[in-house]
Amino acid sequence: MSSKQTTPEVTWAQRSSATDAEKNFIYLTIAAPDCAKIDADLKLTSLTFTGHSETKETTYHVALEFYAEIDVENSKTHHTSRDVFFVLRKKEQKEEYWPRLLKESKKMHFLKTDFDKWVDEDEQDGAPEDLPAGMGGMPPMGGMGEDGGFGGLDFSKLGGGAGGMPGMGDMDMGDMGDMGGEGDDDDDNDDEDMPGLEGDDEDKTGAAKGKAAETVASEPAAKSKIEEVS
User: Fold this and answer.
1) Residue 206 DSSP code
2) CB burial class (10 A; 0-12, 13-18, 19+) of residue 100?
3) Is the pTM above the cut of 0.70?
4) Rounded CA separation 169/163 (Å)
5) 3-state class (DSSP) for residue 29
């Protein structure tokens, strides 16, 4: 029985520069979880992606025809257990943004703006590089396939959930957020240093007077009082 085919969600953002090629690119994310093997055929003006998921019992497939040309040799990719992330360098260096990602202006239901990475054109100079951990040192795609791209590359041979990143093993990038909990004990102790509430001194004074009164009282009276309370 053949698995169903699903069009994955695709999100994108961009940066542009007329003078710095490394700041002239497209952020592209394809949501294709649990794909041990993917086939991503990147060409000058297009990207065709296919990935099969055994756990989801589906084959993800999408074909994108870009608005303008891509520099395949200097583009990069990062594969995780949740998605496949691309940094696609634009071939033409321009200050202006692409007006859209795809050649056709027709709205595609699966294509969305990645607002987590998007910055306005006039604010991008101060925007930090928004790459997955460890991706900055990855080699470009040009050296990852015989055709100058990386079509048919089996990412499962490169590693586990971190998409084959050296030294990452089977680490799930989603667990990275838990690594910052080392200082949680300090936060738990913050309440110990909080100042007392207004009126605490009066309560303490009253309690001290009450205790002195109990000391002066006779034993029978104290016993009677305890029995009355119980």
Assistant:
1) H
2) middle
3) no
4) 9
5) strand
